[in-house]
Amino acid sequence: MRPAQTTTAVLPTVAAIGETHELEGFALVGVAVFAAETPSQMIQAWRDLDHDVGLVILSPAASAALRAVLADRPDTLTVTMP
């Protein structure tokens, strides 16, 4: 009888992009926080995300700033904070 094979699932990284005051608590739970105060900083943060990022939490301002570039990463899920 062969022993059961085990596989280790690699979970995608979670990141957050937005203003510092919107994201303060996310780092406490292991989210990679990309603080950005201007639309250009938010776009650069999006472009700087590692390839293993699977979910990005966006502040409302980041969501608006990134609207035109979100399609650059079609496999990355995003959610906008209320």
Could you walk me through the main structural features you see in this protein, from its secondary elements to its overall organization?
With 82 residues, this protein is of the alpha/beta class. The protein has helices at 20-23, 39-48, 60-66, and strands at residues 13-18, 32-35, 53-58, 77-80. It has a single domain (13-80), classed as ATPase, V1 complex, subunit F (Rossmann fold), CATH 3.40.50. 26% of the residues lie in helices and 24% in strands. Strand 1, helix 1 and strand 2 form a beta-alpha-beta unit.
Shape: elongated
Biggest sheet character: 4 strands, parallel
| CATH 2nd-level architecture | 3-Layer(aba) Sandwich
Could you state the order of secondary-structure elements as H and E?
EHEHEHE
How many distinct beta strands? Answer: 4
Q: Span from first to last CA? A: 54 Å
- Estimate nothing, just give the exact number of structural domains: 1
Mean pLDDT: 91
CA-based gyration radius: 15 Å
> What is the CATH superfamily label?
ATPase, V1 complex, subunit F
Percentage of residues in strands: 15-25%
| Number of helices, counting only DSSP H or I runs of 4 residues or more | 3
- The computed structural class is alpha/beta
Biggest sheet: strands side by side, in what order?
A: 2-1-3-4
Named CATH topology:
Rossmann fold
CATH class: Alpha Beta
- The helix content, as a percent range, equals 25-40%
